[in-house]
Design a protein that fits this description.
Layout: E1 8-11, E2 14-23, E3 29-33, E4 36-42, H1 47-73, H2 77-84, E5 95-99, E6 107-110, E7 115-119, H3 127-142, H4 148-157, H5 161-177, H6 183-191
Parallel strand pairs: 2-4, 5-7
Antiparallel strand pairs: 1-2, 3-4, 6-7
Helix pairs in contact: 2-3, 3-4, 3-5
The protein binds zinc ion.
Zinc ion is lined by residues 136, 140, 146.
Length: 195
């Protein structure tokens, strides 16, 4: 039986078609496919609660789908290995992966698995920014902190480090401010270009 659930939900700005069936199941089960999201929910689950769970599942599935897609498009491991060669003692890079998990970091390096994780948002920025973040994460293979020695090493392998940091703080600022900006100023920003 199909219940009176909305036929679409909007997650992170993406509209997803939704089909909800009440069934004799224990938990909410969801599948994301080409045609949208198919969900089965327990017979007596309250609608508001069901919608809350569906929203959470949809966000997780959408982000996973996006991560698969973005990692299929482009493997930055080769780029990371080239950057590693600039180090006096090149760090090992086993894998580089874009992630869509929300985090306050642009990237991370795990010395245990010798792998780099990068925010998927970097995929859309100019290539030199991706390089700067890769260099930053690889420098953590040598210095697991932000000590003066870390910055000295990073600036020696990636001289544009400070410009990249300024760019990324601008990005963060704009991402937070965007929703509050009046449309005229938004249009003005979109038309502006570097002098
Ligand atoms: Zn760092």
């Amino acid at each position: 039986m199909t219940s009176d659930f909305p036929s679409t939900i909007t997650i992170d700005g993406t509209e997803v078609r939704l089909r909800v069936d009440r069934k004799a199941v224990k938990n909410v089960n969801a599948r994301m496919g080409e045609g949208g999201m198919q969900v089965s929910i327990p017979l007596h689950l309250e609608q508001a609660e069901a919608l809350r769970i569906i929203g959470e599942l949809a966000r997780r599935l959408l982000r996973r789908q996006r991560a698969h897609q973005i990692n299929r498009e482009d493997d930055p491991a080769e780029l990371a290995r080239r950057i590693a060669q600039r180090f006096p003692k090149p760090p090992e890079v086993r894998s580089v992966e874009f992630t869509t998990v929300t985090s306050s970091c642009w990237g991370s390096y795990s010395p245990r698995t010798q792998s780099v994780r990068l925010s998927a948002a970097l995929r859309h920025m100019p290539p030199w920014i991706l390089e700067a973040v890769l260099a930053h994460e690889l420098a953590h293979a040598i210095h697991p902190n932000h000590s003066p020695a870390f910055w000295a090493l990073l600036r020696s392998v990636y001289p544009d480090t400070d410009r990249a940091r300024a760019f990324l703080s601008g990005v963060t600022w704009l991402a937070r401010a965007w929703e509050q900006l009046p449309s005229v100023e938004r249009a003005q920003l979109a038309a502006a270009h570097e002098e």
